[in-house]
Specification:
By secondary structure, the protein is an alpha+beta fold. The protein has helices spanning about 15-35, 90-100, 130, and strands at about 1-5, 40-50, 50-60, 105-110, 115-120. The chain contains 3 helices and 5 strands; from the N terminus they run βαββαββα. Strand 2 and strand 3 form a beta hairpin. Helix 1 packs antiparallel against helix 2 (about 90-100). The longest helix has 18 residues, at about 15-35.
């Protein structure tokens, strides 16, 4: 896996636990898409675009079939074999990102593979003191 990010921190509007779920789902799907590939590679980039932060996940698998690009975020849509997935991960991820007033987009890369962009609004001043203390979504470690 290759990871590229800009210098400095990027804070976004959204909950870290749910955002983690989105990123893990995209990485898992990327790995699944490259099953059988001799050299599976995932590229993850984080960049600033205006007032947004964009997390881009690209795999080097076969990409999403053209007829599936418009349906990929629909519940129960899957390109996996029966028994390998229920088709809920991308739908859930799409709705999490939407709850953060962001966008989840997909396209096929010209050189092969799928590209998923998570576009989120950047926060102005970093984390709030309440988030630094782990409240309200975390339990403090003792």
């Amino acid at each position: 896996m290759a990871f590229t990010s800009p210098d400095g921190d990027i804070w976004v509007m959204g909950g870290h636990i749910r955002l983690q779920q989105v990123i893990v789902n995209l990485l898992t799907n990327a790995l699944d898409a490259m099953k059988g590939c001799p050299d599976p590679t995932i590229e993850v980039t984080l960049e600033r675009m205006g007032g947004n932060a964009v997390v881009r996940v690209r795999d080097f698998g076969p990409g999403v079939p053209e007829e599936g690009l418009e349906k990929v975020f629909d519940p129960f849509f899957t390109t996996k074999q029966p028994g390998e997935g229920m088709g809920l991960g991308l739908s859930i991820s799409y709705n999490i990102v939407k709850d953060f007033d962001g966008h989840l987009r997909v396209k096929n890369h010209a050189e092969g593979g799928a590209v998923f962009d998570v576009v989120l609004n950047m926060a102005d001043a970093g984390p709030t003191p309440a988030l630094d203390q782990g409240w309200p979504n975390d339990v403090a470690a003792e």
